[in-house]
Amino acid sequence: MPAILSAIAALIFVVLPLPASVTAPSAAPGIVLEDRAGIVLRTSRADDGSRMRWMRLAEIDSKIIQAFVAAEDRRFYEHGAIDWRAAGRAARDNLLAMRVVSGASTITMQTARLIHPSRRSLIGKATQVLWAVRLDAHLGKQQLLEQYLNRVPLGQGAIGVAAASKLYFDASASDVSLAQAAALAGLAHAPSVDNPLVSPERAHARRAFALARMRRLGYATEADLALAAMEPLVARTHRAPFLAPHFTTRVLAWLDTEQDAQRSSERDPAPLRTSLDLALQQQVEQAVSAAVAAMRERGGQHAAAVVLDNRSGDVLAWVG
């Protein structure tokens, strides 16, 4: 009787409609502040401290999708929530080795763990499987991929392929090379130790693994692999801009004060255009620095300046 009741409860759980909050972005996006001409002044992290940018699947480069499917779940389009063939193979290998040497976690199961984290135990695994079956029952393959590719941790606080593409390659996830797509997919296995900023050797090996898988599935040719192998692991990226620090800090504080919990969860990811004139800001910074240098002999150490547009009240420059 308890087994029958448990089975009925599990069935009810699976068929219940998914609440909208389950598939909503897990964190509000970071804020990009621009000056009045559209020059980026500062980019904040998401509310949970991570780098996260949500992208629709249609905007993500197909090479990224192919790379993750090849590296993480090559039969993704053929099975349901569970790949029983892979599960059987993993069970055989683990029994023969008398330890865990192989896994069978599908992209759907990984997505379930990302949406509803559970403990690494038998009960936790059972919970993950139930959630995976539920997701598979209510979401199509494309929806599952969008959830996964936007939630998968990829090292250095980067959550999702959009944030990781920007971090490692200074590129958009809508346009990456084959090598870059493979490098991102290679990170999913162990992002904290395999990412190129921590261990270039491990990252290189994982990229080669993903490329080989892509070749095996027909997503790339031998010539493609040869070119990809010569590409550097990461691009020479510039440090994220942090201009007009006093002004941008105040703007972020204003935003936090004005937004209630509901608006924070629905924050527009588009860049926020401010009134600051960066060219004028830099001129004022130079003038303030010169003034402090001139007053240093008389004990002057600090100075500040704010330039306003008298007609509109807009802040054009803020130093100090």
What does the largest sheet look like? 3 strands, mixed
- Spatial order of the strands in the main sheet? 2-1-5
Please, what is the average pLDDT?
Answer: 84
What Rg do the Cα atoms give? Answer: 25 Å
Beta strand count: 7
Task: Estimate percent helicity.
Answer: 40-55%
Number of helices, counting only DSSP H or I runs of 4 residues or more: 15
What overall form do the CA principal axes indicate? Answer: elongated
Question: What fraction of residues sit in β-strands?
Answer: 5-15%
Secondary-structure element order, N to C: HHEEEHHHHHEHHHHHHHEHEE
Poorly predicted runs are 260-268
List the main descriptive attributes of the protein structure presented here.
two-stranded parallel ribbon, 3-stranded mixed β-sheet, single chain, 320 residues
Secondary structure layout plus pairing:
Blueprint: H1 2-15, H2 20-23, E1 32-34, E2 40-43, E3 51-52, H3 62-72, H4 84-97, H5 107-115, H6 122-138, H7 141-151, E4 158-159, H8 161-169, H9 178-187, H10 191-194, H11 200-216, H12 222-229, H13 245-258, H14 261-265, E5 272-273, H15 278-295, E6 305-308, E7 315-319
Parallel strand pairs: 1-5, 3-4
Antiparallel strand pairs: 1-2, 6-7
Helix pairs in contact: 1-6, 3-9, 3-11, 5-6, 5-7, 9-11, 11-12
